[in-house]
Design goal:
Elements lengths: L1 E6 L7 H8 L5 E6 L9 E2 L4 E2 L11 E4 L20 H7 L4 E5 L4 H12 L3 E5 L12 H18 L2 E4 L2 H9 L7 E3 L6 H11 L3 H7 L7 E6 L8 H10 L6 E6 L5 H11 L4 E3 L8 H7 L2 E4 L9 H8 L4 E4 L5 H4 L6 E4 L4 H13 L2 H15 L4 H12 L13
Parallel strand pairs: 1-2, 1-6, 2-5, 6-7, 7-8, 8-9, 10-11, 10-13, 11-12, 13-14, 14-15
Antiparallel strand pairs: 3-4
Helix pairs in contact: 2-3, 6-10, 7-10, 8-9, 8-13
Amino acid sequence: MQFTFLNSHPIQYFAPLYRRLSGEAGMDLEVWYCSEHGLRGEVDREFGTRVKWDVPVLDGYKARFLKNHSPKPGIYGFFGLMNLGLVPLLFAKGKGMLVVHGWGYFSNLLALLAGRLSGQRVCLRGETPACHESHRKGWKKWLRTFFVRNVLGGLSHRILFIGEENRKFYLLYGIPAKKLVFTPYAVDNERFQQQAATLKPQRLALRNALHLPSDKVIILYSGKYIQKKRPLDLLAAFSRCRLRDEAHLVFMGEGELRSEMEAFMDRKGLKNVTLTGFVNQSEVAGYYAAADVFVMCSGLGETWGLSTNEAMNFGLPLILSDLTGSHADLVDEGENGFVFKTGDVQELAGKLEAMIAMPPDERQRMGQKSLEIVNRYSFDRIAEGLKEAVGQGGNYKTSWSSP
């Protein structure tokens, strides 16, 4: 069967998934990209630097780049992607499955409509979590309900949810449960676990190479230094942590808040903090292997946080905020980590203290639980979900007609 995936641009997390699916029996897969963003080292607005991934993002699967007709092309606005050519392409294709990733661009909604009219089996794969919706009231919530239930739900044969909070989002806005299929957010678990097995025995050498102390608890943050990620919360919590002298905090990333972070560190006299700058994909494994604890303290806008999946593949216990979209899936409270209320610096400081004070073998036990959990969020499970959505397995044995 033909599978067409529509994405805004090549994404380093999705490329290995498409390679994996291309090898799946019965899947004739092609990915359509609405732009070439990221292939030529453009400046990433949020990183604040030129970004060109040093891992292959186009190898091992069929890809097509669609012409963008937007008067102001780019990935930072709804009308930045207007790929009108996808309409005749969909009508020219034989019947198959169209998977549209997200609805944040004109091209996404156009694809949903054209896919439905052209006889494709249309699946939407979004990522919005229910925990980000509490601020919507009155007419804004009514409009959101109408859009999700009647536009997204009406045009999609199946909706592919990535996790528990995302499932609750669709139920909140009136999508029937029978229309939802689990295709979890995942990273290349096999590759990361192979790297972990190779690098973990070299932890001391890694720490020395990365200029990190050998005798401290390494707390790792991975992400952009932007407001959505709330890195200043973590700095503030670390400054309040009574055990901070026994730990070292590493911010793996770059972004517009760097100067504020450096100013805060100067004011508080925080010497045991490292701001790495941008770290490319081929180098991130070293930091995960050197770390003891992973923290994500994001707020609104953090729909999942795939670096959490990466960290779990290295057997790291977690501390996640309750607005990080993956917290309900990836944290088993007290077993592999903790969840804290977003923005509650004092609570976060307490969670940091608990992790730092914990015996190393207890952190390792929690990390092993992380590994068990993340293995359920895999490319294999995504492949199973796609087969369910098309009616080849599971509980979704459906025809090509509209449900």
